Amino acid sequence: MRNYEIMFIVKATMESDEIKKSAEAMKKIITDYKSKVVDFKELGEKKLAYPINKEVSGYYYVMTVEATVDAINEFDRKATLEEKGGSLIRHLTIKLDEE
């Protein structure tokens, strides 16, 4: 398993309970693939640098995970689908250096 940092932005135009459900669903994708969420941070609502699909702000989340390649691939697949018509604005996955 490798260490990754995943950042995703949830649409701020949704209800607060829907925002939390969406964040938990993204977290669950990792745990369903026998991987571990080491750290999960809610950074709160922030204004975007530029509008994305008519959204001007979003709720930022960052999680550090120990995950398999399959878990990361599935997360990217589902996050991309959510960006096209669901609750996410953007996501980014970064592989952390081995120490």
Features:
single chain; 99 residues; alpha+beta; four-stranded antiparallel β-sheet; 4 strands
Describe this protein's structure:
It is built from 2 helices and 4 strands. It is an alpha+beta fold and 99 residues long. α1 packs antiparallel against α2 (69-85). It is globular and about 40 Å long. The two termini are 13 Å apart.
Give the terminus-to-terminus CA distance: 13 Å
Number of helices: 2
Average pLDDT figure? 92
List the strand order in the largest sheet. Answer: 2-3-1-4
Brief sketch in words of this structure:
With 99 residues, this protein is α+β, with helices and mostly antiparallel strands.
Question: How is the secondary structure organized here?
Answer:
Elements: E1 2-11, H1 16-32, E2 36-52, E3 55-67, H2 69-85, E4 88-95
